[in-house]
């Protein structure tokens, strides 16, 4: 990694000038997860209990291309970060990434997991390949297969930036200029079980401006909202401040797949298993009684210190 990559990172100064009061304040509405409020409520009318996500209102996929120079550069930088710093699950554990394995629904398979970095979620950088907020891991092969950027500053959701835009774009603010979009969605709800491989329907196709690439999505279904609430409750210990609610939506997120993907580098769903890197790893990088050739990566395979006292299903039943 070199100093030139600073141009691909939005720091606090740029965010303050473009997002204003959104920085440092949680802009995601909340609702308690009791009774009907697990789904839609007056405060979170779009909330659902099913797997559900959507593209951001200002998202644009039309301008994104796998062969665009900036897509290639971002993917190469993400690949280098994985190859040199996070090649194994053990390296993620050593760097204090926190695993999240989705609560499975009947008939659904997880297949891949999210490993979250509290340090990077809590910093003031956006879309920094050196500091990805999440590493995506294939549970079958135990291999990292991509990164996920989360639009947060100091742990609070903010508006996401456009990755790149051609001159003449209707919304020309690029990643070097600042963030755009509207994250002030109190009363909006996002969620979908991020780790599940089944396709989810969306209200917006993410087409947008054909000259602009801004492939951010959000989650408004209960599984995705639960995932973010679980992270905040268990790892950020929000409950100590009396915060016991499930958000109306999770922050804006964007995948960058470092393995081949038939739907593109920024696709929401994980690539099919045959694209995910081959046979299970011989050495997962940590001591475990589990055999990657015989067992999926999951809570039971991890060392005791990496397993929280409360798992996602435990937290759901307590709300």
Summary?
The chain is an alpha+beta fold and 319 residues long. It has one domain.
Give an overview in words.
The protein is of the alpha+beta class and 319 residues long. The chain has one domain. The chain contains six helices and 13 strands. Residues 4-38, 105-109 and 176-206 have low confidence and may be disordered.
Question: What is the makeup of the main sheet?
Answer: 5 strands, antiparallel
For the largest beta sheet, what order do the strands appear in spatially? Answer: 3-4-5-6-13
**How many structural domains in the coordinates?**
1
Number of helices: 6
Beta percentage is 5-15%
Chain-wise SSE layout:
Blueprint: H1 12-19, E1 30-31, E2 54-55, H2 69-85, H3 89-94, E3 98-100, E4 112-116, H4 118-121, E5 134-138, E6 143-150, E7 152-153, E8 156-157, E9 164-165, E10 212-213, E11 217-218, H5 222-235, E12 246-247, E13 253-257, H6 312-318
Antiparallel strand pairs: 1-12, 2-11, 3-4, 4-5, 5-6, 6-13, 7-8, 9-10
Defining key terms:
319 residues; 13 strands; globular; two-stranded antiparallel sheet
């Amino acid at each position: 990694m070199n100093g030139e990559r600073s141009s691909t990172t939005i720091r606090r100064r740029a965010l303050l000038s473009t997002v204003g009061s959104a920085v440092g304040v949680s802009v995601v509405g909340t609702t308690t997860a009791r009774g009907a409020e697990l789904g839609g409520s007056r405060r979170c009318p779009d909330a659902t209990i099913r797997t559900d996500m959507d593209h951001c209102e200002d998202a644009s996929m039309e301008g994104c291309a796998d062969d665009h120079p900036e897509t290639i550069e971002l993917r190469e930088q993400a690949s280098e970060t994985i190859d040199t710093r996070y090649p194994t699950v053990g390296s993620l554990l050593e760097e204090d990434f926190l695993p999240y394995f989705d609560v499975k629904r009947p008939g659904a398979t997880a297949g891949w997991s999210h490993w979250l970095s509290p340090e990077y979620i809590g910093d003031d950088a956006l879309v920094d390949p050196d500091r990805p907020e999440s590493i995506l891991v294939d549970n079958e092969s135990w291999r990292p297969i991509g990164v996920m950027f989360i639009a947060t500053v100091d742990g609070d959701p903010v508006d996401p930036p456009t990755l790149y835009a051609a001159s003449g774009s209707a919304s020309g603010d690029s990643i070097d200029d600042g963030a755009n979009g509207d994250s002030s969605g109190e009363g909006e709800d996002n969620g979908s079980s991020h780790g599940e491989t089944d396709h989810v329907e969306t209200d917006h196709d993410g087409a947008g401006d054909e000259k602009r690439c801004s492939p951010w999505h959000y989650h408004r279904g209960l599984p995705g909202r639960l995932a973010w609430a679980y992270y905040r409750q268990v790892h950020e210990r929000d409950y100590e401040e009396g915060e016991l609610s499930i958000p109306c939506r999770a922050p804006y997120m964007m995948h960058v797949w470092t393995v081949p993907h038939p739907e593109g580098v920024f696709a929401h769903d994980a690539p099919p298993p045959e694209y995910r890197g081959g046979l299970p790893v011989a050495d997962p990088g940590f001591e475990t009684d589990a055999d990657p050739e015989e067992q999926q990566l999951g809570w039971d395979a991890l060392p005791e210190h990496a397993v929280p006292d409360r798992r996602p299903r435990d937290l759901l039943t307590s709300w």
